[in-house]
Amino acid sequence: MSTGGALWRRVPSWVVDAGLVVLAALDAWINLYGEATSFMWACAALGCVGLVLRSRFPLVVFLLTLPMTLFMDVAVAPIAALYTLATRTRNRPLLAGCALLNAAASTIAWPLSESLSGDQTWTVIQFVYTLATAFAPILFGQLVQARIEVARRLVEVEVAREHERALYAQTVLARERAQLAREMHDVVSHQVSLIAVQAGALQVAAKDPAARDAARTIRTLSVNTLDELRHMVTLLRASGGKETELTPQPTLADLQQLIANSGIETTLTGGLPPGISTTAQRTVYRTVQEALTNVRKHAPGARAEVRLWHAAQHFGVTITNSAPTRPSVALPSARHGLIGLRERADLLSGTLTAEPTPQGGYEIELQAPTRPT
Questions:
Q1: Given pLDDT bands bounded at 50, 70 and 90, which one contains residue 13?
Q2: How many other β-carbons are positioned within 10 Å of the β-carbon of residue 368?
Q3: Which end of the chain has fewer CB atoms < 10 Å from its terminal CB, N or C?
């Protein structure tokens, strides 16, 4: 089944369209042969050739098949048009109306006088039968559309899970590095400092020149080792990326790259006061990062606006997203991201607010007092 589906997907669309046009033309020719007028042939040609444009203008193509359906007992063109329309829209009243139009065009005999003078019971039976036939491609098209939508939702769920796993791995790695940095600072650096102090005391108290030289050497090596340890601790505390990288935490200079890599249509406006602290820049960056992550998870298809601002006493960032254009997939969330952002805001003596907007979107705002540098 999967192999056949893969082979079918590799068939060029123009081949499928050409095949449908040929089948529809053959269907019309069988029904019109020997008793058709030029006008009927024109209607048949219009309905058959119009199938080439069914993917771009499904409703128009369906309407083009109605005249040929009125004059002849055809099936290929209207069924193909109804199926394509059902795969392109979720407007069920529109689909039901198209099915009624198709059934009416197939039931009414031309000229109308023949329909009115014939057996009305048989006309009603034929109408019901044709209506049921018209609903078959509509239901199948809706099923195909639902399958495509489910497949797209599954891809989005998998992307969200991969993103969550990557964030979790980075969090664990950063926690381990922070713990290692604390151990190096609290234990190793402390003991090396004691060695340097003892070596300095021995250098002063020793009477033997050789002993003083040895103590001086020990003290120099200890001081150099202590400087290296402090440098390593600084790198470990600043790193939070991949395991093989020791990179500093992001700042405002990295915001453009973050927005470019977010996969969301985002605009960046405004600015922050010059000279704000590195901690404040990192907090603004993490706030934007978490907000865009939430947009991608909970508001698929939405646009976002990132606005940096500052006043006399405060500065901050406001991230607003529009309403989602597609239904979101319910994902488990403990809101740890917003909790972490509020903790970062508290460190700046600021506040973080997160609330929905009247337009159906969401807004996250970080506000912190301006501090002298």
A1: confident
A2: 25
A3: N
pLDDT digits (tens, 9 = 90+) for 214-249: 888 887 777 777 667 766 777 666 654 444 344 456
Q: Please give the angle made by the CA atoms of 228, 234 and 239, to the nearest 5 degrees.
A: 125
- Condensed to tens digits (0 to 9), the pLDDT of residues 66-114 reads 888 887 778 888 889 999 999 988 898 999 998 888 888 888 755 555 5
Are the C-beta atoms of residues 248 and 313 closer than 8 Å to each other? no
Continuous segment of H or E residues that includes residue 353: strand 351-356
- Please, which contacts does 112-120 make with residues 24 or more away whose CB atoms are closer than 8 Å? none
- Structure-token pair, residue 236: 């470990």
Q: Looking at the whole model, is its pTM more than 0.90?
A: no
Residue 40 CB contacts under 8 Å (≥ 6 apart), including other chains = 32, 68, 71, 72
Calculate Rg over the CA atoms of the chain.
36
Burial 72-99 (b: 16+ CB within 10 A, else e): bebbbbbbbbbbbbbbbbeeeeebeebb
Cβ partners under 8 Å of residue 300, min gap 6: 156, 324, 325, 326, 327, 328
Please say whether the beta carbons of 265 and 231 come within 8 A. Answer: no
Please answer whether residues 367 and 287 qualify as being in contact, where contact means their C-beta atoms are separated by less than 8 angstroms.
no
* Angle (deg, nearest 10), helices 278-298 and 120-183: 160
CB atoms closer than 10 angstroms to residue 225:
16
Strand partners, 266: 304
Beta strands in 19-141 (DSSP E): none
* 339 vs 281: CA distance, rounded Å: 18
Q: Is 226 helix (H, G, I), strand (E, B) or coil?
A: helix
* β-pair partners for 308: 270, 317
